[in-house]
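Our consortium's second objective concerns turning raw sequence data into structural hypotheses that experimental partners can test. To show how far this objective has progressed, the report includes one record in full. It was chosen at random from the queue rather than selected for favorable results. The single chain below, 391 residues long, was entered without modification.
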Amino acid sequence: MTPSIPSLAAALEQARREGVAPALSAVVLREGRCVHASCHGEIPAPAPRPLRPDDLFDVASLTKVMATATLAAQLVGEGRLELDRPVAAALPGFGGAGKEAITARHLLAHASGLAWWRPYHALALADPVARAAFLPSAARPGREGLRPAFLRGRALVREAVLAERPERPPGQQAVYSDPGFLALGFLLEACSGQPIARLAEERVFRPLGLGATFFLDGAEPAQVEAAAAGRAFAPTERCALRGEVSQGTVHDDTCWAMGGAAGHAGVFSTAREVASLGQAWLDAIHGRPAIVPAEVARAFAARDGTPGSTRALGWDTPSAEGSSLGARLGRAGRGAIGHLGFTGTSLWVDLERAVVVALLTNRVHPTRENERIRAFRPRFHDAVAEALGVG
């Protein structure tokens, strides 16, 4: 029988009724054991039905920790990536426009000086080949026919990221940066010689047994076909550019222009498997066998030295006030690491109490104007702490 804590199930169901999101799924682990799992709401298409635990969510920026930062930590452990070496030494073309001093550490800590966001998808919209990805669904080519558009879109975004000019010197200030993690994705590809989707599958998802966690990489149509077969996806936003509700296609437009796989977004998963990824990091930090070496995991979990920053390497840590983790978890001993996703997802790991909380929602369906998740996240994590007797 799947364990369920009544107070947490009630809080999630109340959130659904109050319009926090039309679909919510949560898993809580303690000491590696599942103490709560429940899902609430529905999948509306192709026919309405209740949400199931194996339904997939676009986890958005949880990609940054589930794939990109985890891969970076592995390559650091193997000596194939040096945190304090200039990125330009391993990623040809990155060193121009004032980026010569930016290191992998700066990218991971959001302290590179690069902008928080750029509309790179507009480059694809303006390109005669890449814009096919943004045609109305009825006029859009099939998966195989879209491959040239995605390859062209990926090349355009890569070129733009390499040409970016920082807004401030590296290490001066932490500003959350999608371009920074796009650059980090390209760096990992340069260090490994493999696309990030394949790298994550071979080195992270498959070794952890995460069979429902993947990128849907449109540059590999057969992989998309195999991964999506028989699976259901929680819908996200109605995309004006694509003229459709995104369901089983990535929400982020730049990631979509690249085919669905990038360093900043693109992963689909379930709450149970997101929690399993968090548990893998918890195991590593506590010195148990894991997919990241213990000393590297601890270095990545330590708060970065950038002035005023709460960021670790890839991860975030709880702020003194107003954290989405609430007021009780992560406030003792080793603290906590976590991350949020724009679509309404989050993963938090209390390192001292060995508690992992994965909360997945599609709060952007049908519109991103719904921001009730902001108030709900800390309430839910405080409810988890209450239920577990923490704090």
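The partners drew two points from this record. The chain has a mean pLDDT of 97. The chain has two domains: 6-56+270-388, 62-269. Both points have been shared with the crystallography group to help prioritize constructs.
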